[in-house]
Amino acid sequence: MKGREPAVRRTALVTGANRGIGLEVCRQLAHRGLRVVLTGRDGAATRAAAAALRGEGLDVLDAILDVRQEGAAARLAERLRQAGIRVDVLVNNAAVYPEGALLEAPPEAFREALATNFAGALWTCRAFVPAMLAAGHGRVVNVSSDYGSFGAGLEGPAAYSLSKAALNALTVKLAAAVSGDVKVNAAHPGWVRTRMGGPASFRSPAARTPEAAARGIVWLATLSSRGPNGGFFRDHRRIPW
């Protein structure tokens, strides 16, 4: 009788992962047996976060990635390719939360939100999804928000809301463009107790833990071939765009 084929080792890359939700997503994915590339734009914080997870016995690499810089993700993809690493799972978690109303917020609030929350995901998708398509397998999870949902009223600070609505549109467009066992979905993690969910933020301080928020993201990142494509989810449940 023939022996079983060895299981395919998958690699996940998570952006904005040196703290909060991104860090917990890295931890949970690594606990599921994936090799994880933990990225962030602060080199010292990124290295420290990855080292802490390695101290837990997890297979975690670190890489500096400023998603705002066009070409940075493509350069990282090439370095990983040269090291023999193909990214099978991409979690676009990096985000900023500038406050202010539509007609009063400073211009830089809109530039920063769009560059990080929308264009950052666009550049990483363009860098890593082609290899997924070539391999016939991949998962992309865009960490969004109900503040970017038309169905929920596009509430929240203007720059953040607009950038997340754009990220949702990117999710729909990319999901329609992929083929094979490549799936693209968006996740709303809820209002989470992180630095973004602290007392200075738009809403009252958050009660939801990063551990709880990460579970829905990790579910989408590890979907079976029968799982959904092109949806917006919170805690495994589809929500309106």
What does this structure look like?
This protein is α/β, with parallel strands linked by helices and 241 residues long. The protein has a single domain, classed as NAD(P)-binding Rossmann-like Domain (Rossmann fold, 3-Layer(aba) Sandwich). The protein has helices spanning 20-31, 43-55, 72-82, 107-135, 158-177, 210-221, and strands at residues 11-14, 35-40, 60-64, 89-92, 137-143, 181-187, 232-234, 237-238. An eight-stranded mixed sheet has the order 3-2-1-4-5-6-7-8, sandwiched between helices. A hairpin with a 2-residue loop joins β7 (232-234) and β8. α4 (107-135) runs parallel beside α5 (158-177). Residues 1-6 have low confidence and may be disordered.
In short:
The protein is an alpha/beta fold and 241 residues long. The chain is built from six helices and eight strands; from the N terminus they run E-H-E-H-E-H-E-H-E-H-E-H-E-E.
How do the helices and strands line up, and which of them pair or pack?
Layout (H helix, E strand, L loop, with lengths): L10 E4 L5 H12 L3 E6 L2 H13 L4 E5 L7 H11 L6 E4 L14 H29 L1 E7 L14 H20 L3 E7 L22 H12 L10 E3 L2 E2 L3
Parallel strand pairs: 1-2, 1-4, 2-3, 4-5, 5-6, 6-7
Antiparallel strand pairs: 7-8
Helix pairs in contact: 1-6, 3-4, 4-5
Choose one word for the global shape. globular
> Terminal Cα separation, in Å?
50 Å
What is the mean pLDDT?
93
Uncertain spans, ≥5 residues at pLDDT below 50? 1-6
Strands of the widest sheet, in order across it, are 3-2-1-4-5-6-7-8
Q: What order do the SSEs take from the amino end to the carboxyl end, as H and E? A: EHEHEHEHEHEHEE
How many domain modules?
Answer: 1
**What's the count of strands?**
8
Helix coverage percent: 40-55%
Oligomer: single chain
Radius of gyration: 17 Å
